[in-house]
Amino acid sequence: MEDSLYKDYVQNEYSVPLRGHRQYIAYIYILCNSIGFLVNGYVLYVVGPLLFVQTVKVPKSILFYILTLCVSDLMTMIGMLLLVTEIVLNTWKFSAFACTTYLLFDSMNKFMAPIIVVLISRTCYATICLDKRKQEHAASLRCAIPQIIASISVILMLLWPVFAYSKVSIVPATVNHSSKELTYLKKCGFLPPPEIEIGFSVVACMLSYAIPLFGIIFWYMSVPLFLRKRAENTMAKGGANGTADVAVRKVITTVLVLTIVYVVCWTPYWISLFLHRIFPDLLAFSNKNIVFIFYMVHMLPYISCCAYPLIFTVMNRAIQKAHAEVMNSQRRRFKSITEDVTRHIRDALSFRIWNRDNHLFPRSSISVATCTTAQRIGLVSPTISARSNLRPQGSSLNLLASANSVSFSNLHMVSETTPLNPSPPTSPIVRIPVDEGDERSETCL
Known about the structure:
- It is found in: Cell membrane.
- By secondary structure, the chain is mainly alpha-helical.
- It folds into two domains: 316 residues, Rhopdopsin 7-helix transmembrane proteins; 88 residues, no CATH class.
- It is 69% helix and 6% strand.
- A three-stranded mixed β-sheet has the order 1-3-2.
- The radius of gyration is 41 Å and the shape is flat.
- The C terminus is likely disordered.
């Protein structure tokens, strides 16, 4: 919309209630977006811990590729939130930077997902069909990380038109020339010149659709051929081929599922894209059925974001088995930690209760020798055993107070019959150093 054409008009942003076809489109997109977050979150939960476990038999490179695919899909799901908001409100409510970010995430998904699927198929082929040195190299992170960095760098360079020609455009909805009022809609779009648009679409289709599809089929189908040939050699030597047959069926099943998902999700998208380029009036706003069909076709790549990580995780028994082992180990570790914490808490509470009782009813620390001496000098009744409880009706403080309250006359009378120690105890509690075991057994309680 030219600003000079409607510069004197009162401009209001158009608000359309959510109803009709747009309502169904919004609900379907919200459902797909929610499933995408749940599926990729589940795959991160399953695969993430395995990347840091050394005993996992699944190649680290494949685990890293799956995690990268999940991160890429989550970025696409975040961008999809902006698209869902635009569908619900029927106008773009965000900034131009948010528009560029959404289109960048959406375009990167068209490249990243197929490229990562190709890298996984190439790694499976290398770790099975090549020699040991190449197998170890293909399975290591030293091989996977540079490939991902190089892929992202190439993709960002190819997406330079997205940075240059993404913008928020204003579309007039209704114009009242008599009252000079204008209602408009804001739309986020990729609007390059026609020659750049056609060239970008052709290059993107070749690099993100045709070539990856050929690579997936070639490398995955090379695996069962190699396994079949090796099984024939094993049978010629008198061995069994049952394991090879199972592996071949598993690989073929994986190839069929990946190929079906890839073709079903991406072929209609690229066909609709070129139809829109050839017939620009095909998406006329008056034809709601065509608009609904195009929205459903545009949603198919988002469905692939949910399908790929789930296929690589659910159909890989080694990943499922390794995840179960890691979870069992973590449960045992958590149970052990919980038992240790519970024991420490129980011991601490027991000590506090014991300390409180000892404060209210202090225990005598007079040793056996001290009790015997006290009996000889008459401070303690001879009927009290050295190992008996010296706590009378109240507490042991009563006994010690009685012992300290003995008059000097009584003490002098006792000393005539029984020789006293030259240095009588000055403390009400006399501690004699003994071993820990003796201290526990000989303390007067």
